[in-house]
């Protein structure tokens, strides 16, 4: 049996959080931009995946912050030089 906290979180907390973020996005451009970016996230991912050459190996590089992305840039550039690899 699922605990009461599971239902409180999924039925009350998450919807309230979503409503709160949409309300705050009316006043904060950064929140509004973040919401718009997340709405198109999976559409862009699907488009990028369909354009890949399936005969090549795929390397998926994930960075959770801008700092991590900046540190990964030299590695990405080195991998891009190899024409037999797709980078996502």
Describe the overall structure:
- With 88 residues, this protein is mainly alpha-helical.
- The chain has 2 domains: 39 residues; 35 residues, no CATH class.
- It has 4 helices and 2 strands, in the order αααβαβ.
- A two-stranded parallel sheet has the order 1-2.
- β1, α4 and β2 form a beta-alpha-beta unit.
- α1 packs across α2.
- The radius of gyration is 19 Å and the shape is elongated.
Structural class: mainly alpha
Beta strand count: 2
Q: How many distinct helices? A: 4
Main beta sheet strand tally, sense and closure: 2 strands, parallel
Radius of gyration: 19 Å
What would you call the shape? elongated
**Proportion of residues in extended strands:** 5-15%
Can you give the mean pLDDT? 88
In terms of per-residue confidence, which ranges show pLDDT below 50 for 5 or more consecutive residues? none
Key features?
88 residues, mainly alpha, 2 domains, 2 strands, 7% strand
Secondary-structure topology with pairs:
Layout: H1 4-25, H2 29-39, H3 41-50, E1 57-59, H4 66-80, E2 85-87
Parallel strand pairs: 1-2
């Amino acid at each position: 049996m699922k605990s009461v906290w599971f239902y409180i979180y999924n039925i009350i907390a998450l919807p309230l959080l979503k409503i709160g973020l949409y309300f705050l996005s009316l006043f904060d451009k950064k929140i509004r931009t973040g919401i718009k970016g997340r709405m198109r996230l999976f559409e862009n991912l699907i488009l990028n995946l369909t354009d890949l050459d399936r005969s090549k190996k795929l390397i998926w590089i994930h960075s959770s912050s801008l700092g991590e992305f900046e540190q990964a840039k030299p590695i990405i550039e080195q991998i891009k030089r190899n024409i037999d690899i797709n980078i996502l």
